[in-house]
Structures are given as structure tokens and as C-alpha cells.
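[Q] Does anyone have a clean C-alpha cell version of this?
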Amino acid sequence: MMKRLTPIARRLRQDSTDAELRLWSRLRSRQLEGAKFVRQFPIGRYVADFACRSAHLIVELDGGQHGPAVDATRTRELEAFGYQVVRFWDHDVLEDTDAVLEAIRAELLLGFGRRE
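[A] Here you go.
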């Protein structure tokens, strides 16, 4: 299934939202706690917005295009792969990026602790 999602992930990287670009500029190159994040990470039947594989953390940005039921199903399925999933609204990323990064930092530290 991963091969089938790779072209989709590539297209999503090219068509990133403003919120995704803003967050990626702060997560890339190990800027947050030295954690390596990847974006548009194929996993199962989904492409996660951001993932830190070493901490088993997925960060999803929501712009309201799905709905709570779809997001809940997606979260459950991603968690079945052993990942913790955290979600933020696009608006929050754009309006208070530092608060979003602090929340991700806290989750990262918990994730690294679970892996040790």
C-alpha cells in the first residue's frame, strides 16, 4: 500500500497549505528537541501530515474539510500502528504557532520517554 500512497504524498507536499508550510518551517531540520520529522508520511491507508517516527508521534492539521467522525476514525487507525496522534486546527497554527509547538514538544518528550 505504501507504494500506492507515495505519489499522493508527493503531490500533497507540493500543494501544502499555509498552516502546513508554517509548521514545517519550524519542525524541519531537527529544530524541535532534535526530533526528526517527516511530512506527508504514508502509513496504512492514510498520509499523515507530519510524523516523528522515533517518538511514534503523528501531528495532523485540521482545516475543517473532513468532520469529527472521519478524523476520529483516522486517528484510531493511525494509533493502531503504535503512534500517538495530536491534532491542531490550521487557524491555531497560523495564529499561535509557538503554543502549537509547545504542545508538540510536550508530546515528543512523552513519546521519547515511552520508547526508552
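[Q] Thanks! Anything notable?
[A] The chain has a mean pLDDT of 89.
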